[in-house]
């Protein structure tokens, strides 16, 4: 039985996930998924699934995204200090909204631990840590107290487009994060870890 799902980044092409998810739903596979890993746009869709949305609702959410508003908060000088021209506030607010209105009744600033306590599927988000030159995992296993919306926003910090992300409350000592897709766009290999081995003799 399939227990793990990996969703890669792809920008606006993330809308195409709706069709793939519908096929998984029709094949009675999606409900059995326990763990979802996502990078960039994939982390956004993964967050929706883990928050309890069905495919019809995810389709509506994706088509409601105003991609023109991605270009809000334009500041060309920001590219030198925060590696991106646009604030990215619209996408963060969008994440807050879908979590707040989710079937799992999550708070906008729900942490990974709170997401697990609400009965959500386990979410794994990846972002590139520019300060440490690493790819960092955000999950209930590694970062239970991190705000889910901020982790997804970090994973979607497209270099030179959205400003790089720094977590609130000086978490991680103001380390800087950019889009996880820069070096780990398709997190399928993440599930090669022995802790996710679903094979049984």
Overall morphology:
globular
Please give the count of helices: 7
Radius of gyration: 16 Å
Largest sheet composition: 5 strands, mixed
The CATH first-level class comes to Alpha Beta
Q: What's the β-strand tally?
A: 7
Q: What's the domain count?
A: 1
Specify the CATH homologous superfamily: Cytosolic phospholipase A2 catalytic domain
Q: Helices and strands: which structural class?
A: alpha/beta
In the CATH hierarchy, the architecture is 3-Layer(aba) Sandwich
Alpha-carbon distance between the two ends:
13 Å
User: What are the segments in which pLDDT stays under 50 over at least 5 consecutive residues?
Assistant: none
CATH topology: Cytosolic phospholipase A2 catalytic domain
Percent helix range: 25-40%
Instruction: List the secondary-structure elements in sequence, H or E.
Output: EHEHHHEHHEEHEE
Q: In percent terms, what proportion of residues is strand?
A: 15-25%
What's the pLDDT, averaged over the residues? 92
Structural commentary:
With 201 residues, this protein is of the alpha/beta class. It has one domain (4-196): Cytosolic phospholipase A2 catalytic domain, CATH 3.40.1090.10. 30% of the residues lie in helices and 15% in strands. The chain has seven helices and seven strands. The strands form two sheets. Strands 1, 2, 4, 5 and 7 form a five-stranded mixed sheet that branches. Strands 3-6 form a two-stranded parallel ribbon. Helix 2 packs antiparallel against helix 7. The two termini are 13 Å apart.
Give the topology.
Elements: E1 4-7, H1 17-26, E2 35-39, H2 41-50, H3 55-64, H4 78-81, E3 84-86, H5 89-100, H6 112-117, E4 122-129, E5 134-138, H7 148-155, E6 160-162, E7 177-179
